[in-house]
Specification:
The protein is α/β, with parallel strands linked by helices. The chain has 2 domains: about 120 residues, Response regulator (Rossmann fold, 3-Layer(aba) Sandwich); about 90 residues, Winged helix-like DNA-binding domain superfamily/Winged helix DNA-binding domain (Arc Repressor Mutant, subunit A, Orthogonal Bundle), CATH 1.10.10. Helix content is about 40%, strand content about 25%. Strand 11 and strand 12 form a beta hairpin.
Length: about 230
């Protein structure tokens, strides 16, 4: 059975350095990252975005509230896996977090690739690692990183693939150019400006649309941005 993927991670963390580093790395791994610094904002975010969120990364120490009570509230209200970020060797935090229903934990400082492996393992275990996204007659296998149109594989650059994922995870929503730039700005390891975005949207359309001059998958919404149908 083909399922649609939810790959947005809510990172509840108040350290700007950790937020920046994790966000950039997880984006390169195909995830979308939203961040809140405290418990109240995290719950407010999930009230609005639960359906598009796959997993919560939760620090034990927060600027507002604390990780333990946030975990308890998230588990009581939502069917979402939680991974705790804890101080290395803090056995009390680990045990308390697991007792509250956390699905895994990882100690700081952590290796980014180990964290990604843990995230994917938890998503598989919780049944949320749905790997196939369908966008018109285009299918995206996020596990294998492949894109096919009518069964034939398409070859996309890293930035084109990232851009396609952004549209696929926001189907039906109008995305402004600024929103798109925020999502993809450093995925290719280079600066992406407004003119570059125009070029990459054109290239992506040439690969996924049957008629790039009359796109039906990624449509232009005049004066506002773009929308994936």
């Amino acid at each position: 059975m083909r399922m649609r993927v939810n790959s947005r991670i809510l990172l509840v963390e108040d350290d700007p350095t950790i937020v920046k580093t994790l966000t950039e790395f997880l984006k390169l791994e195909g995830f979308f990252v939203s961040n809140t610094a405290g418990q109240t904002d995290a719950i407010a975010f999930l009230e609005e975005h639960e359906r598009e969120t796959a997993l919560v990364l939760l620090d034990v120490s927060l600027a507002e509230g604390n990780g333990f009570s946030a975990c308890a509230e998230i588990k009581a209200k939502y069917d979402l896996p939680v991974i705790f970020l804890t101080a290395s060797g803090d056995e009390y935090s680990v045990v308390t977090g697991l007792d509250l229903g956390a699905d895994d934990y990882i100690g700081k400082p952590f290796r980014p690739r180990e964290l990604v492996s843990r995230i994917r393992s938890v998503l598989r275990r919780c049944g949320k690692a749905h790997n196939i996204i369908e966008l018109g007659d285009v299918t995206i296998d996020t596990a294998g990183g492949t894109v096919r149109k009518e069964g034939q594989e398409l070859f996309l650059s890293a930035l084109e693939y990232r851009l396609l994922l952004v549209f696929a995870n926001h189907k039906g929503n109008v995305l402004s150019r600024n929103q798109l730039l925020e999502e993809i700005w450093d995925v290719a390891g280079e600066f992406v400006n407004d003119n570059t975005l125009t070029v990459y949207i054109k290239r992506l359309r040439e690969k996924i649309e049957t008629d790039a001059a009359n796109p039906i998958i990624i449509k232009t919404v005049r004066g506002l941005g773009y929308r994936a149908e």
